Amino acid sequence: MADTIFDSDDQEEDFALDRSLVDEVRLAVATVNKSRLADILTPMHPADLADLLEQVDHSLRREIFLLGRDVFDGEVLSELDESLREEAIEFLPDDVVSDAVRELETDDVVDLVEDLDEPQQEAILDALEDADRVAVEQALSWPEDSAGRLMQREFVAAPEHWNVGQAIDFLREETELPEQFYHVIIVDPRLKPTGYVTLGKLLASARDIPLSDITEDTFRTIRVLQEEEDVAYAFNQYHLISAPVVDEDDRLVGVITIDDAMAVLDDEHEEDILRLAGVGETSSLSDRVIETTKARFPWLFVNLITAILASLVIAQFEATIAQYVALAVLMPIVASMGGNAGTQSLTVAVRALATKDLTSSNLWRVIKREALVGLANGMIFALFMGVVGYVWFGSMMLGVVLAIAMVVNLVIAGLAGILVPVTLEKLDIDPALASGAFVTTVTDIVGFFAFLGLAGTLLL
Predict the structure, then answer these.
(1) Which CATH number belongs to the domain containing residue 257 in this structure?
(2) Which of 201-229 are b and which e, b meaning 16 or more Cβ less than 10 Å from the residue's Cβ?
(3) Out of 7, 142, 204, 226, which could bridge 18 as a Cys pair, Cβ 3.0 to 4.6 Å?
(4) Is 0.85 surpassed by the pTM of this model?
């Protein structure tokens, strides 16, 4: 059955869903063949099943939910895009949803319910055991995008005076261990973490060795109010597998594992890309037309305003353009080159800010580098466009104007691509959210002003 999930015969990327799989699902739904649908969906990994649901349209997805209800478990729900979870919970029977969420760790339950409406939240919380419900409600009490929301309450802790043998005996006898864990956290009598031991080192050590002698050097704790993106950065920077979470009194309250941290990192990257493109923070292929329109309209409107500003600059040189029509042909080239160069610098800057590689200590070095890169590229393209201007329109001076304007705009584009996101970051505004519009405005206005201004001075 695995052969129907992945297509190894065509040139699609590895692990992509087989194109025929959707056709098989569609046929099973059309013939109301519940057993066939179950045969197709049951062997699929939850992530692949979530991808399948995200790739089909709303009506087919609804039929899959209703006909294949027995296939869906908590892992599938947790893998679904946020925009589809509410839809899944609406279509699936209450008993199916209840059974599904009981299988999840508390962090996955929190991730599942935090964006749902209150009635849906209550329905899911009511399905949990009392201890799990309390844990989830406590996690929901922490601020959104904090470590408290991200952590799971299930962890393995051992007193700091234990040895390897005592820890192994405890693990063998304990009946309610987390489904997956990577470390045994060592705590003092006040429940403050003092270190952790990997399971591999625990199993490889003699029974009489104290746990404190085999702790990891990478041990770090996460504050419960720490922002999620900082948590993901710490995991990526220090190659963490898991990290204990502590409250304001440094007491152990939970643990964050690498899968959750990397999910945050992936979400942050996705948000940055979507924001830079002006299509919202959570756009997906499964969004409906009205949702997509609402998400994109504001940024298209902003772009319209910036385009009007650039047009006002052009209007100031109406007489110049009327006397030298070639300017109207060439000026979009200057603005376009500036916009592309600015986008290149902007993308590098936003990424560097997100990874904390761009700081006050190296800011001026980066600014100098971008200015010099803009100057170098500007001079290269200036030479090329100067020749183009001369050959095309037979005017040496037009080529000179075009060349100078190209240098000016590419230098300004490089500077704007760095300075705009850095300035927004200082103002506590997400640089990925608004930088694009500002940089485009700067490069358009400077490009038009430099080109047309020089033309009015040197050509007329």
Answers:
(1) 3.10.580.10
(2) bbeebeeeeebeebbeeebebbbbebebb
(3) 7
(4) no
Closest alpha carbon to 37 in 51, 46, 24: 24
Residue 428 per-residue DSSP state: T
Q: Rounded to whole angstroms, what are the CA distances from 174 to 95, 122, 163, 171, 288? A: 29, 31, 17, 5, 48
Domain of 63, CATH number, reads: 1.25.60.10
How far is residue 383's CA from residue 386's CA, in Å, rounded to a whole number?
5
Out of 146, 169, 202, a domain closes at 146
Beta sheet of 157-159, edge-to-edge order: 157-159, 183-187, 193-198
Residue 94 placed within a domain: yes
Rg, the chain, Cα only:
29
Number of helices (H), then strands (E), in the chain: 21, 6
What is residue 283's predicted lDDT score, i.e. its pLDDT? 55
Classify strands 222-223 and 242-246 as parallel, antiparallel or unpaired.
Answer: parallel
Q: Which residue has the tokens 């009598």?
A: 189
- Write out pLDDT tens, residues 45-100: 888 888 888 888 888 888 888 888 878 877 888 788 777 777 787 777 777 777 77
Number of domains in the chain: 3
pLDDT digits (tens, 9 = 90+) for 115-135: 777 877 887 888 888 888 888
The C-alpha atoms of residue 135 and residue 149 are separated, in whole angstroms, by: 11
Q: Kindly state the tokens that stand for 156.
A: 């393995």
Residues in the chain: 460
Q: Count CB atoms within 10 A of the CB of residue 183.
A: 26
pLDDT digits (tens, 9 = 90+) for 218-255: 899 999 999 988 898 899 888 899 999 999 999 999 99
Domain enclosing residue 181, as ranges: 157-277
Which tokens in the block code for residue 214?
Answer: 């085999």
